[in-house]
Structures are given as C-alpha cells and as structure tokens.
Amino acid sequence: MRHLSAVAVLICATAAGPALAQSIEPMDVNPELAELGKRMFYDVRLSGDTSLSCASCHDPAMAFADGEALSRAYTGSAHFRNSPTLANVGYRDAWMHDGRLGTNLNDVAREMITETYLMNMDMRIMQERMKQDPTYIEMFQAAGMSEPSNGGARNARQAFMQTIVSRGAPIDTGELSPAALRGQGIFEGKANCVSCHAGVRYTDDQPHNTGVPDNPEIWADPERHVAFVTYAKFMGIPNYMNLREDPGAFIRTHRPETRRSFLTPTLRELTYTAPYMHNGIFETLEEVVDFYDAGGGDAPLKDARLQPLGLVTSERAGRIAVLEALSGESFEIEAYVWPDDDPFDYELIEDWRNVAN
Amino acid sequence: MKYINAFVVSLAVAAGPTLAQDRPDLLSALGPPPIPADNPMTPEKIELGKKLFFDPALSGNYGMPCSACHLPEAGWAVQAPISFGYPGTTHWRNSQTVINSAYYQKLFWAGASGSLEHQARSAARGGVAGNGEDDMMEARLAFIPEYRAAFRDVFGDDWPSVRHAYMALAAFQRTLVQPDTPFDEYMRGDDDALSEQQRRGLDLFTGKANCVACHNGPLLSDQAFYNTGVPPYDGWETDSLAQITFRFEIFAKGATEAKYRSIKDDPGLYFRTKQDADKGKFRTPSLRYTAYTFPYMHNGMLETLRDVVEFYNAGGGENEFAENKSDIIQPLGLTDTEVDDLVAFLESLSGEEIIVEEPEPLFMEPLPEAGN
Fold first, then answer.
1. Class of domain A16-24+170-217+244-324
2. Is the peptide bond before B295 cis (omega within 30 degrees of 0)?
3. Domains A16-24+170-217+244-324 and A31-166+332-341 belong to one CATH topology
4. Does residue B170 contact residue B116 with C-beta atoms inside 8 Å?
5. pTM of the complete model
6. Domain B182-232+282-347 class?
7. Whose CA is closest to B363, among B109, B48, B20, B57?
8. Kindly report the CA angle at A238 between A232 and A240, in degrees rounded to 5?
9. Phi, psi of B369, rounded to the nearest 5 degrees
10. pLDDT at B164
11. How far, in Å, CA of A333 to CA of A283, rounded?
12. Chain A residues within 8 A of B138 when measuring between CB atoms
C-alpha cells in the first residue's frame, strides 16, 4: 500500500498533479501602473525622513526579502519580524506573519508606508512629494490618472507587487533531481508538509502554531522591543508592557487558542530568503527540516499534526533537495529593478504664483 | 546737576506707586502666568518637563526634540524666516519663542491649540515638525529608566504616559517667563528703567503709532487675529521642498478643492473657522523677548524690529487676502527719529537672554525581565 502511494505521488508530480508541480500564472496587471509602482518601490521619499524605500527590506536579489533574521525598521526603531519574500504576494489571502491584513495589497501598501515603525510617512506629504517630481507626474498620466495621489500611488504599488511571480523553478519545469523526487514523496507523504504547505505557492495562508521558539533579540534590543510594544499596544493586547513573546495571530483574533500561531509561509524562493521563520530564528533549511523532523517546537498550543517524523538521513537530504527545487530564477532583473541612475529629484515649479497647485 | 538728578530719582522711587499711575492704561507689567487647575506645578514635574524638552524620544525618528526648533540660544525659536522641518521636509511658518508662551490662550500662529499641553502634542506629531506617533513615543519613554522613576514619582504612572509627558512639558514652559524687563520695571514705577528715547517710543506706541490697538495688556498682545498684509513667504517661489510643504498644509489643514488649487499664501485663521473673511489672519504676537526672536511675522518675512516698525509706518503690506486686511493698519507718518524711538521702546520689552543648562541625555535600556 505504502509502495503504491509513493508511485502515485511520483506520477502526480511529473504530471503536474494538484498539490505540487504547477507553475504560477502571471497576474493580469496594467503595465503602466506597475511601472509606476516599481519606481515608487525604490524611492526613499516614500518614507517620512527619506531614509527607507520598500526595497530597503525587500531586495530583489533576495527574492524581495532582506537576508536578516529580524528586519530593519524606521529610523530610531528596529523590527521584531523577519522580512518575507514578495514572490507571488498578489496571490495571498492574508498578509503579515500574523495575518492581520486580510483585504488586498492596496491596504498592505498603506500599512507599510504609514506605520510609525515602518516608513512613518504622512501620505499627504507623500502625495505632494510626488507632485513635485515631473517623472511621477508623467507616469501617473501614462497610467491613466490625472495627477499623483495617495490612492493612485497605493494602486500602483499593488500593481507592481502583483507582477512579482515566481518563474522557472525546477518543480515547475519538471527538472527534479532524483533526490528532489524522493523529497517530493516525503513532502506529500511521510512528512505531510503538504497539509499546510499546499497549492502552487505551498501555503494555506492560515495561521498555525508549530512551536517556533521566540527570538530573544526582540526583547534584548530596546529599539526592537519599542516597536513590538507599539504594535502590541495598538492592536489592543493586554499587559503589553510585560509581554515577552510574540502573540502571533492572537493579535487579530484575541482568541487564546490562536496564541503564537503564524501564517504558513510560502516555500517558493527559499534559497534566496534565509534566515527562516517569522522571526528568522533558523539560519538554514537544514535547521528547519530538523525542527519539523523533531515534531516542531515545545509549545502548549502546538498543532497536533506536528509529531516527530523519524526521517532517516537520506530522507532529510531529499526533503532539502525538493525545497531547493521550489526556487526559481532571480528577481534581480530589469523587470523588477529600477535603474539606479534615477536621481529621484524634485523640480522647482517655476512661475509658482500663476500655476494651479 | 547730577546730584539733583539722583535726588529726584530717590524721590521718584519713594513715590513710585503714585507716579506709576501715569502709566498707559492699556499696558501693564507681566504678572505670574496662569496655571491650569488640572496641571499644577511641582519642582519634580518641571524638572521632568525640562528633560523631555531636550529629548529626541518625542519625535518620529528619535532625532527631533522640542529644542530642535526652539533653541534656547536662538531666542527659544529659530533665527531664520521659516522653522526647520522634519528631515526630508521644510516647515512653512516662523518658529515662535517658547518664552512667555505660558500666557497665550491660543498657541500656534493661527491659534490651533488651546493649551500648552495640546500644543506639545501637536508639535510632536506634526508631519513637518516632530512627525512622531503617540504609541511609539510613549513606548520609548518606558525604556528610559530615569523616566520610569520620574513619571511614577510625578504622576503615579506604572509606565510613562505620553499625555503626562505633554503635561510635564507644559509645566516646564510655564517657568520660561520674563516678567522683569526694563518695561516691566518702568510699569512698576521705576521711571529710570526706560531711557528718554524709550519713553518717547512708548508715547508713540500708545499714541501716534497706535500699536497698542492690538499690542496691549501685559503680554502686549490682544490675542486676536488680523491680516496686516504681511507678504507671502518668498521661499515658495524658490524652494521645491517649500512648495511641497505648502500644498501639504493646505491639503492637510482642510480647504475646498478650488482653494487647494488656487491659494498661494498661508490663509492662517481660515483653517480653523473655514470663513473666507478669516483668510490671511494671524494672532497678534507678543512683543516680549523679540530682541532674540528675529526674523519677524508668521513667516519671518521682516528681518529686524526696525523693518517691522517701517512696515507698519507704511500702512502694512499687501497679500492675496487683501480684502481681509485690517482697517486699523494705516500709514502712520512717523519720522525717522520717531521710528528710532519706537524701536528703542520695543527693545525695552526684552530682558537678559534666558539660557538653561541642557540636561544630560538619557538613553533607552532593555527592560527588566517580566513574566508573560
């Protein structure tokens, strides 16, 4: 029976079955709007003190993550979470590790720009900054808008993020090594990773508690801890000053059973996005695989499906091989990178008294 | 002769109260500032407010304390036409001195705040000022051990409350007053506190020049709003950052779309009342401490006190809200000597420069361990 299962999995895999091996379709995006959003993505003038752009923490060379365990944040603070990849971000059902944004990327863009520990931007100033830059004025018009505006800017950033879609991963092209093929079977079978890491993005977009340990750096570094307190206070978490753990999805549900659960991350582009987990606590894929092999972490509310897997060495290697096969071509290409010779300058409005604002 | 003079002076001092009755009715010496019943002064609260005044924790980027734009050595203001803005921006109005701000019933040039407590919060949060957010600023205070102790001591806080920070700041500012200028001494009966020239200037102030029509009372401000025709800030024509901030302010403070598109000057009081008749009106500023607070007017467009006197001698100026210009403002016909006298009197409204020793900077530290 088990033998038959494995054969079935292999057939599914090579024949683009439902769980694995189905490439991700590009999203339908207005190219002019996306181009505008792309420029904004690289423009530090979208942060309050002009110190950060989106790309500061979402670097195309790292599949739009940042390579840090815990991300940087706005001047005077530091983040308490790992910067996630933006690969296929337009297909998500919810955003942020705790899933607190469940609407659309337009809202995600607003949250990133305005949150005090992220880009701390008064969007009314952002709008007027864009209106002071002839390149933006042209690009808004090319995208069908009369002039730069906050709403248009958020739509444009949404459109650019929707263009970020994985391409050319071995899992999609069918070029899996024998080890990866073995790993694929384990992924769907014995290890049952697929129970959460399902679908073409390898995520169910749902929160789960797998017992990932906290990252003590958050509470050792006042700048991180301050950002964490600001967040917990704003989200209405009781006793936030004494809290020394990341409450995860509890922040939006306020239901105790969701405490310390985090959205299943996509497994796409993993080779670009170390370190791993919502707080970057694991530096390598090996550590991640070992963590789940051991049945996850030690947590009272841990998902009951997590049990020691008893993988043998060759199975562990296979699992890493299949995980690596979920990474495609780099996003560090012209389609995603804004030319670095753009000065992002303002231009004085001549004859200011006589032209409309 | 000198001997006789001295004799007269000693007589004058002895008879001070009587002679003081010759003083102009519409002006008076400055008394103690009003203290709101819900924010009483204590030495500990004042000391806390002083630390906060110089602490960049109360800003978005941990870099813009109150003192960034209210520099003690620059008249507790900025000695430039327009205040510094938050990094990446510029401001759009002149920074006002903190000295004697305790006496204003309305703070900011267009009177947007009703108390120093409220003003502190607005300045800490404003997009081209502190650009801070209350939750974040409050969190930072909790990580500074000295503040945990001081807020507990002064306010009984388990953890520092940012509202209490604004109260402490207001208390500190209520100590930054100057009730002992030469003018105040004169008004209290010391005839020699003003020179001959200054006394002539005072006569002009209350007489021919009629400055006292608006600059009256102990603060030398009626705290009412007028358009005196101050010309627009010239930076709007030459500085792209200033153009950004100008549009932001019109947008953020609220105007119709037609006004947002067309206004080219600061409409001032209009933002509060949304009445066209209030466009271009600003609160009469106090004339105290002005020796240190150049340049002048809500946008710093007049450089010296003499420029200000000459501006009013010419009947004020003109801006795009000319229909709202005050009728009080008419050409004065002052001679050069009279202008000199008036400037000399204005100088008597400033005493010694007020400088305080800046407190040692405080730093965030990890919080002690706590149970979850």
1. mainly alpha
2. yes
3. yes
4. yes
5. 0.92
6. mainly alpha
7. B57
8. 45
9. -55, 150
10. 98
11. 26
12. 233
Chain B CB contacts of A243 below 8 Å: 372
Express each pLDDT in B189-199 by its tens digit: 999 999 999 99
Nearest of A58, A176, A167, A75 to residue A109 by alpha carbon: A58
Contacts of A357 in chain B (CB under 8 A): 246-247, 250, 260-264
Amino acid at B65: P
Q: Do A49 and B365 touch (CB under 8 A)?
A: no
Q: Which residue of A has its CA nearest to B370?
A: A242
CA-nearest residue of chain A to B371?
A242
Model confidence at B19: pLDDT above 70: no
> How many contacts, defined by CB atoms under 8 Å, are there between A and B?
141
Q: Which tokens belong to A124?
A: 């009314």
pLDDT-derived band of residue B368, with 50, 70 and 90 as boundaries? confident
CA distance A30 to A42: 19
Q: Which residues of B touch A219 (CB under 8 A)?
A: 366-367
pLDDT surpassing 50 at residue A17: no
Q: What is the pLDDT of residue B21?
A: 60
Q: Say what the pLDDT of residue A267 is.
A: 98
Answer whether A101 touches B (CB < 8 Å): no
Domain A31-166+332-341 has CATH 1.10.760.10: yes
Closest-CA residue of chain A to B261 = A357
Give span(s): CATH 1.10.760.10, chain B.
43-173, 182-232+282-347
**Which residue matches tokens 């002052």?**
B334
Say how far apart CA B286 and CA A268 lie, in whole Å. Answer: 65
Domain B43-173 has CATH 1.20.1600.10: no
In this prediction, residue B17 carries a pLDDT of 45
> Is the pLDDT score of B10 beyond 60?
no
CB-CB under 8 Å, A352 with B142: no
**B87–A contact, CB cutoff 8 A:** yes
Q: How many other C-beta atoms lie within 10 A of the C-beta of residue A213?
A: 14
* Overall average pLDDT of the A316-341 stretch: 96
Chain B residue with Cα closest to A233: B135
Q: Distance (Å, rounded) from C-alpha B156 to C-alpha B150?
A: 9
Residue numbers of A between 114 and 133 with CB closer than 8 Å to B: 116-117, 120, 122, 124-125, 127-129, 131-132
List CB contacts (< 8 A) between B237 and chain A.
Answer: 352-353
**Are the beta carbons of A184 and A172 closer than 8 angstroms?**
no
pLDDT for residue A6: 40
Judged by CB atoms closer than 8 Å, whether chains meet at A124 and B367 is answered as no
Contact (CB<8Å) A122/B131: yes
* Residue A259 touches partner B, C-beta closer than 8 Å: no
B232: nearest CA partner in chain A: A353
Which letter does DSSP use for residue B278 in this model?
G
How many helices and strands (H and E) does chain A possess?
13, 2
Alpha carbons A123 and A109: distance in angstroms, whole number: 11
B372 has pLDDT over 80: no
Contact criterion met (CB < 8 Å) for B366 and A225: yes
Contact A88, A24 (CB under 8 A): yes
Distances A59 to A71, A87, A100, A128, A133 between C-alpha atoms, Å: 12, 11, 23, 26, 24
B254 and chain A in contact, CB less than 8 A: no
Cβ separation of B159 and A219 shorter than 8 Å? no
Q: Which residues of B touch A346 (CB under 8 A)?
A: 240-241, 244
Name the H helices within B269-360: 270-273, 305-313, 336-347
- Domain ranges for chain A, please list them: 16-24+170-217+244-324, 31-166+332-341
Return the residue of A nearest to B143 by Cα: A222
Q: Check CB contact under 8 Å for B88 and A241.
A: no
